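tool_call: predict_structure(chain=1)
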Amino acid sequence: MWLLIAFIAVPLIEIALFIEVGGAIGLWPTLALVVLTAIIGTWLLRMQGRLALAEVKRSFSDVDDPSEPLAHGAMILFAGALLLTPGFFTDVVGFALLSPPVRRRIFAEIRKRVRLATFEAGPNRPPHGSAQDGPDIIDAEFEDLDQPRHGPNGGTPRGRH
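tool_result:
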């Protein structure tokens, strides 16, 4: 339901803002302002996107919880989509999402509603639970000796049938 309301309300808000701004400063300055915000937004998007990607890489290399850097990356991606959409309302929301304090506040609100149950990463991760939870898992390779092995020419090697 909220998505339907957004799809109806956002274009109406944008049209109203275009009419108001266009009436106040004229057609060409309004169009120039829209193009200018798209250019500035793209530049900021690239800068913030690089920082977010570096933070995601850092969290993976430190075997740290990547949920916050990934959420910031998703918000930056959404901000980019809003900034490339022509309009003043979407530009304001997009620029707000490019601001790290705004993203941290949104993530804090999301974190209140979503709980991370477990996070495990890396080859040296601690075992899940205690020894009473179940058997140990051993990563291994095996070879079935009951099956004939094929040599380089497709036949079985000498001495094996």
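agent: Residues 27-61 form the longest helix (35 residues). Proceeding to next step.
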